[in-house]
Write a structure and sequence with these properties.
The protein is built from 21 helices and 18 strands. The protein is an alpha+beta fold.
Length: 606
């Protein structure tokens, strides 16, 4: 039995890692702990556990522990074992390649600027790490345009007889043919180093002095070049600057989750300047929580840092991670400097976080609609629902209202490429009892398929209904009334507390089906269902807000904008108009006896 009281009682109160093993001794999960006894015992406490933890405990047959001297060692060992075993209950960060730096060499009269990966062994100035090589190349291009440093390799540089194309287009000073002295070139190098350290103001002051000196010496051409250099530097500074008050180094982690996928978008900020960004798509176990995903990312991402790589002094996140102090301690030991994990509620850091989260949502949306991703999900759906062939068209229906007010039905369409938005439709529902979702669903299906029949368009291969058995039955009756047969309808009922992963699929001639929380088919159904809900609720809010912006007077024939303004100006508000008699209404400028009677009847009918 996994829960062994003797085993738990003899666990030490020391840092280390624990591995949960399955029946064949496969590693199901690897975790770290500052206090192994406290952490492992928590799995068997009386407190309710999440779905993922319950499944893990049910499948695990054994727990093995390894003691370490420090939290840092536990973090390193955990990450090593996760990378080695790829446990299916761990969040897995799949991208572990080294990160690029900018290197300006320091062992030649004419130093070179280049993109560099790997340990910092050679002499020179290293800047970074940058989130990706694109950010490095863009920054190198800026440095070349500003300070004209060479980027060519040494053999190419040594064998030039005339300047290359970079000189012709203003990205190099022609140092290979002696068109600039080593002293002047080293000044450019010093300015580039200051710029990359975030000390742009020092560079600006130095260039301004040089420009003034050149103008006094009547070297107007050189002064004009310095002027242009200053203008470009100011433009770059404005474009790259993030905050004038926060000058430290920080990584900002924005998280977005949807339909079983997650994206972590990293903004790398150094000395108040945005160096670049990068999107990560970790592999998730079923029912993974946001705090767990961020904690795993921080562990694995910063553990993979190259020796000597500078870690940010702050990691900015939107969630409270349970092992924050553990991670701070371990990363601080690794960096030999204080590292904080912060959850900002306001200020500049909050703005950075909102920027990262917005980009994470955008990147995740792109990932969801990738062709290969969609095709894989469609294939999984075919297998899960036992369809004879891959569905080429899926339609999903949902109903949205607020207490029965302004009910709107939605129809979203997915094909083998993903969302087919040009075929999305909304239906304004009328003629039903407010709040009767079954009647609303029946009306939506009737109107939708009557239109498809009239236009001779092809019918969907699969119809998803947001709701349980009652909504499904209502939709089936609507199709039966139209003589539509042979279509597969599936009701998607939300689970307990509306938690994703607990949905029940209802069929008309099959027993209900529960797919595994990590099922790709279920994730696809969730994606389509959520899109239908989004489309319905957006339409409902637009309709509701339009009604609330519309004056009751607009529904009275003969009352235009001019008369409405006159009525409201005279009476001071709608309530006074409602209680006014006909004689009082006739006192309004431009009012006729017929209109006064119409207004009075409108408010006093019945």
């Amino acid at each position: 039995m996994l829960k062994d009281k003797i085993f738990l009682a003899h666990l030490p109160n020391r840092p280390g890692i624990y591995q949960m093993l399955g029946p064949g001794r496969e590693v199901l999960y690897v975790g770290k702990a500052r206090d192994l006894k406290k952490r492992v015992s928590s799995y068997f406490s009386a407190k309710a556990q999440d779905l993922k933890t319950l499944n893990l405990i049910e499948q695990a047959q054994k727990i093995e522990i390894t003691l370490t001297h420090t939290e840092h060692e536990a973090l390193l060992l955990e990450c090593f074992l996760i990378k080695k075993h790829q446990p299916r209950y761990n969040v897995l960060l799949r991208d572990d390649k080294s990160y690029p730096y900018i290197l300006i060499t320091d062992d030649q009269p004419y130093p070179r600027i280049l993109l560099y990966r790997g340990p910092k062994k050679g002499k020179g100035h290293y800047f970074g790490p940058y989130p990706n090589s694109t950010a490095v190349r863009e920054t190198i291009h800026v440095i070349q345009k500003l300070f004209h440093l060479r980027s060519c390799n040494d053999s190419f540089f040594a064998n030039r007889k005339r300047p290359c194309l970079h000189y012709q287009i203003g990205l190099c000073s022609g140092s290979c043919t002696g068109l600039i002295s080593p002293t002047d070139y080293q000044k450019n190098v010093a300015h580039a180093v200051l710029f990359l350290k975030g000390k742009s103001q020092e560079v600006i002051h130095a260039l301004q002095r040089q420009m003034e000196e050149a103008a006094k010496a009547l070297h107007f051409e050189h002064a004009a070049k310095l002027r242009d250099q200053l203008a470009y530097l100011a433009e770059i500074q404005e474009r790259q600057y993030v905050s004038s008050r926060l000058q430290g180094s920080a990584d900002v982690l924005g998280l977005a989750m949807h339909a079983g996928l997650a994206c972590i978008f990293l903004l790398s900020i150094r000395e108040g300047r945005l160096l670049g960004s990068r999107a990560y798509f970790p592999s998730l176990p079923s029912a993974a929580e946001a705090s767990e995903i961020l904690s795993a990312f921080i562990s694995q991402h910063y553990w993979a840092a190259e020796p000597g790589e500078e870690l940010p002094r702050e990691i900015v996140i939107a969630e409270t991670v349970e092992d924050r102090s553990f991670l701070e301690s371990a990363l601080s030991e690794q960096a030999k400097a204080k590292i904080k994990i912060v959850k900002p509620l306001r200020g500049e850091r909050r703005k950075w976080l909102e920027m990262a989260e917005s980009n994470a949502k955008q990147a995740l949306a792109g990932q969801l609609i990738q062709k290969t991703n969609i095709q894989g999900r469609i294939a999984a759906l075919q297998k899960a629902l036992h369809l004879e062939r891959l569905p080429s068209r899926i339609e999903c229906f949902d109903i949205s209202h607020s207490g029965g007010e302004e009910t709107v039905g939605s129809c979203v369409v997915f094909n083998r490429e993903g969302p087919f938005k040009s075929d999305y439709r909304r239906f304004n529902i009328s003629g039903i009892t407010p709040g009767d979702d079954l009647a609303a669903m029946r009306q939506v299906l009737s109107r939708r398929f009557r239109r498809l029949q009239a236009e001779g368009k092809s019918l969907p291969d699969l119809i998803l209904i947001d709701g349980g058995a009652a909504q499904l039955a209502s939709a089936e009756r609507a199709l039966a009334d139209l003589g539509v047969e042979g279509l597969l309808l599936v009701g998607v009922a939300k689970g307990e507390e509306r938690k994703p992963g607990l949905e029940t699929l209802h069929f008309s001639r099959r027993p209900p089906l529960h797919l595994a929380p990590d099922s790709m088919a279920l994730h696809f159904i969730q994606q389509i269902r959520d899109e239908a809900h989004r489309f319905a609720i957006t339409g409902h809010r637009q309709r509701r807000d339009k009604k609330r912006r519309t004056s009751v007077l607009e529904s009275i024939p003969g009352i235009g904008a001019k008369r409405r303004r006159a009525l409201l100006k005279y009476f001071g508000g709608l309530q006074a108009i409602e209680t006014a008699n006909i004689d009082q209404l006739l006192e309004v400028s431009g009012m006729t006896a017929k209109l006064a009677e119409e207004i009075y009847r409108h408010f006093h009918a019945g």
